[in-house]
Give the backbone structure.
Amino acid sequence: MTRATIERLGDAALVVRSPLARALLTDLTTRPLPGVREAVPALEVLTVLYDPLEVGADTLTASLRERLGGLVPGEEEKTRTHVLPVTFDGPDLGWCADHAELGLEDFVGTLCATPLTVAFLGFTPGFAFLTGLPERLRMPRLSAPRERVPAGSVALGGPWAGVYPRETPGGWRLVGRTDAVLFDPWRPEPVLWRAGDRVRFEVRP
Amino acid sequence: MEVRRPGLQTTVQDAGRRVRALGVPGGGAADPLALRLANALVSNPPGAAALEVTLAGPALHFHADALVALCGASFAATLDEAPFPLWRAVPVRAGQTLEIGGTARGARAILAVRGGLEGQEAFGSRSTDLRTGFGGLEGRALRAGDRLTWASLPPVTAPRAFLSPELRTPTGPHHVLRVLLTPEATPDLLATLTGRSFTVSGQTDRMGARLSEVVPAPHDPNRVSLPNVPGAVQLPPDGRPILLLPDAGTHGGYATPLVVASVDLPRLGQLRPGDRVWLRGVSLEEARGALRQQEQEVREAELALRWWYKEA
């Protein structure tokens, strides 16, 4: 049996918490449920936005439970691997290396050797929450966010790694930068990565 | 249509997009009812792209005949210096200038043009996303000198109908917003949030409306980022609640004890700095009933107008 809770979020959304959240998203994309406007993933969470004029919360909850019951764990979309060349010269690099009790080179080496996974997308178009950091690379967020983080900044914050697709405010520690274009609304697939994709940083020669 | 004066923040908006799963905000008209009604008045599909004006409107010089409708807050407007009525379809001749001024109540209005505005489409919508800079007119607000085009259709006679004032999204200065509780609404938090009024602060834009007063906020640094929904009432650590509008980020890490009922979402688009807001808890059934009633009234107006255009 799968553990799943389904809670209401206002009168037009349900929050499904289940290890099968991502499989449920795939399922809803291929076989849409009536009244569902869109489904938005987070870590082991799927928020289902619906039209309350078309479907009631109880009916939709029952349909979602039924769908979850038919899903098999581990049944996921084919994932890809992205290797991002990074110049490690971020303003917080030294601080992070000290915090990890590593020399600069070892810190960069450890980070590049870490296989990361796109947990989910969000915050700003193209931003991905990358999971998989070992304990020693997890950095406390800044106490006051920077007003401007340059586009392409590679950053660490709490359990996450991430790359800022464009200049925004941000509270994570900046360790480097990349030229990878994470979001371009005019290419066939506007966002570089999808949830579940693997990511690795490498030192730009 | 040529922009002579851009106004405070005039953008192309339609019914918005549904790609939050890619981290792209929903976007779309902040007062979606005004968009639907303005489009119905000029015989456009309900979600056709139109101009959204904010607090101080633009001056627009027309180089072609058009049929337009202005719906939303009660902006003062003139066509070649003669009073221009809101809430009805008005023919504009080539060479005329429509000046939309300010409004004493509310914040936004929609100017629909028969045929629907053209503009950059991204993820199935022409809505302008100001933060990332795509959609509409190069992803930005109008500037003087810009030109906007629309699909040209055979001329029609404008319906002589005004829409019932009952259909208008209420504008300030006092708002009672119906809210639904989430599992994060502790009894203490609920009492603080619903037992008093709040002031809409100057930090109010298409992403959200910040309230001025401070309430004790729960601090949970381990709360993970979760998907946002329209109308979510977020409580950041500084204790000043934020009501989320269409351009809000797709995910957020702040506590969300309340969500504004769907029926009152258009009202969020009319919040103006200085307005007073009361949050009133309602049941799911009440929220759904009120939404059904509103939808029925709007659909009747849309049907009546469609019938008029078919018969005319």
User: Anything to note?
Assistant: Chain B touches chain A at residues 18-25, 122-123, 129, 131-132, 134, 180, 182-183, 224-227, 229-232, 249-251, 256, 259-262, 284, 287-288, 291-292, 295 (CB under 8 Å). The mean pLDDT of chain B is 95. The longest helix of chain B spans residues 284-311.
